[in-house]
Write a structure and sequence with these properties.
By secondary structure, this protein is of the alpha/beta class. It has two domains: 138 residues, 3 Solenoid (UDP N-Acetylglucosamine Acyltransferase, domain 1), CATH 2.160.10.10; 54 residues, Udp N-acetylglucosamine O-acyltransferase, C-terminal domain (Udp N-acetylglucosamine O-acyltransferase, Domain 2). It is 16% helix and 27% strand. It is built from four helices and 28 strands. An eleven-stranded mixed β-sheet has the order 1-4-7-10-13-16-19-22-25-27-28. Strands 2-5-8-11-14-17-20-23-26 form a nine-stranded parallel β-sheet, with no helix packed on it. The longest helix has 15 residues. It is elongated.
């Protein structure tokens, strides 16, 4: 049986795995599902069609799965989907999606979401990311795997941030950030390759060198965007680590940071 504190309120329709723990004064709505090994601390509110996977740690004073902050939202049955092994610290707000987009907000696995972060409707957060204190994701934002967003970074709606990026604290992201790039500022501008992060994740020196050359092609060569993209596509045949970059640049978006 789940370990539910006597002061917690769990609606009859909620589906909790046998070893889930619910802390004092927390509220779990009737459409919430929580997987094995997940702990919910005190004063947490879980609402809506929220699906939470295994081995998550949800700290106190979070609002998870409530309605999106979107004036177009009319009560449609949208979702919040959270994977496995995530840590969600205090005072975070994670909203469900809207029918105008994916009808779901998705958070992957092993993410570290620090205090006061906000993940708005229809966002997609990958795996192994860090959202530091006060990070704010507007609606429809996509965050790639292993990306780190420094404290109080704000991301404009519909922006994409590629895998293995690193954003300095206080950055204001108004356009897409390609994979592997470090950025900072208001508005955020590129400042090289996240080489140290790539080393820690096992990228070889040769792969990192190829990514550095790709960065120079994109930002330092003087080529037009389409010319740089074509050159990188050709180089990706010999350097598979460039394929995520090429695919990112080929997808429609808000245009990349400059």
């Amino acid at each position: 049986m789940p370990d539910i504190h006597p002061t917690a309120i769990v609606a009859a329709g909620a589906a909790l795995a046998a070893d889930v723990r619910i802390g004092a004064f927390s509220i779990v709505g009737g459409e919430v599902e929580i997987g094995p090994g997940t702990t919910v601390a005190e004063h947490v509110v879980l609402r809506g069609r929220t699906r939470i996977g295994a081995n998550n740690r949800i700290f106190q004073f979070n609002s998870i799965g409530d309605a999106p902050q979107d004036k177009k939202y009319g009560g449609e049955p949208t979702e919040l989907l959270i994977g496995d092994g995530n840590t969600i610290r205090e005072f975070c707000t994670l909203n469900t999606g809207t029918v105008q987009d994916k009808a779901a907000t998705r958070i992957g696995h092993r993410n570290w979401i620090m205090a006061y972060a906000h993940v708005a409707h229809d966002c997609v957060v990958g795996d192994d990311t860090v959202l530091a204190n006060g990070v704010t994701l507007a609606g429809h934002v996509e965050i790639g795997d292993f990306t780190i967003l420094g404290g109080f970074t704000a991301v404009h709606q519909h922006c994409r941030i590629g895998a293995h990026c690193m954003l300095a604290g206080g950055s204001i992201v108004l356009r897409d950030v390609p994979p592997y790039v470090m950025a900072r500022g208001n508005s955020a501008a590129p400042h090289g390759v996240n080489a140290e992060g790539l080393k820690r994740r096992g990228f070889s020196p040769e792969a990192i060198a190829a990514i550095r050359r790709a960065y120079k092609t994109l930002y330092k060569s003087g080529l037009l965007f389409d010319q740089a993209r074509a050159q990188l596509a050709a180089e990706s045949a010999a350097h598979p680590e460039l394929r995520p970059l090429v695919e990112f640049l080929a997808a429609p978006g808000r245009g990349i940071i400059r």
